[in-house]
Amino acid sequence: MKKYNLYQIDSFTKEKLTGNPAGVITNAEGLTDCQMQKIARELNNSETAFIFPSNNDEYDVHVRFFTPTNEVPICGHATIAAHYARAIENNLDTSRIYHKTGAGVLPVDIIKENQDYKIVMTQGKIEFGNIIDGINKEELLKALNIKNSDLIENYKIQIVSTGHSKVMVGIKSIETLNALQPDYTLLSKLSKNIKCNGYYVFTVNEENDNILVHGRMFAPAIGINEDPVTGNANGPLGAYLVHHKLVHYNKSSFKFNAVQGEAIKRAGVIEVEVKIENMEPIEVKVSGNAVIAFKSEISL
């Protein structure tokens, strides 16, 4: 029997029981894949992060991420949660560490401020995938219960990834966004056809200097009907907005804040920064706060 340190962390918020909850095991060495999957299923958060020690000089820790039904390569809010828990546990100072993930070895910046921490996650390689059109677009609109006229003109429906791909779906109205009642069975079926599990439906409000984006993210094919606040949706969205020249930005960077989770009463705020070279996005960072909802231990 070994005791494992178990945290429930609410990410992208400082208010407990809001934002996006993630499980974290900070001393996961010794757990099997089967045990990790069972723990993730038991906690029933959209993701649970498991932190393993490094076995070489390339990275400081190895983090694995599980939904209740699948292992996934990387997760934004669970990355924030994992490194927040680790920073608290080890009383870390402001520092940069590297973690090995399914999306590669990536930097994480731990910023200590006011006896607390803000976590900055550098995401993986930016990749622009297929445009969703034709019969797949028809099936997507049907699954989301929206009409073609609800979509923002000139916003292509496209698969974009910074480590874990999402379908970008821009719609005109926040009222429509908050009223969405997707058909999860149809979304899961479509995921198999388009080889992408997540759908990020968002609105853009350029008149609001503080909050540019409001969004909702659905990924029923991997056991997440709706994810409250998604780093790996808003990060790719930033790259998408720059790539398609849909927003104003300077030559070197584009920054914005996004709110997600309002419709399910778990709102949180994500800060996104896109690094730009030659008018194209080359790197995405997402950052946010976190708070410990509870801490416990599990013996296995």
In words, what does this structure look like?
Keywords: Isomerase. This is PhzF family isomerase. GO terms for molecular function: isomerase activity. With 300 residues, the protein is an alpha+beta fold. It is built from 6 helices and 18 strands. The protein has 2 domains: 130 residues, Diaminopimelate Epimerase, Chain A, domain 1, CATH 3.10.310.10; 160 residues, Diaminopimelate Epimerase, Chain A, domain 1. 22% of the residues lie in helices and 41% in strands. Helix 3 packs antiparallel against helix 5. The longest helix is centred in the first third of the chain and has 15 residues. The chain is globular and about 55 Å long. The model has no long low-confidence stretch (mean pLDDT 97).
Query: What ranges have pLDDT less than 50 throughout 5 or more consecutive residues?
Result: none
Mean pLDDT figure: 97
How does the major sheet shape up?
Answer: 18 strands, mixed
How many helices in DSSP terms?
6
User: Would you tell me the structural class of the helices and strands?
Assistant: alpha+beta
The helix content is: 10-25%
Gross CATH architecture of the largest domain: Roll
N-to-C order of helices and strands: EEHEEEHEEEEHEEHHEEEHEEEE
Query: For the terminal residues, how far apart are their CA atoms?
Result: 5 Å
Outline: globular
Total individual domains = 2
Which CATH class of the largest domain applies here? Alpha Beta
Task: Give the CATH superfamily of the largest domain.
Answer: Diaminopimelate Epimerase, Chain A, domain 1
Strand content: 35-45%
Our Rg estimate from Cα atoms comes to 18 Å
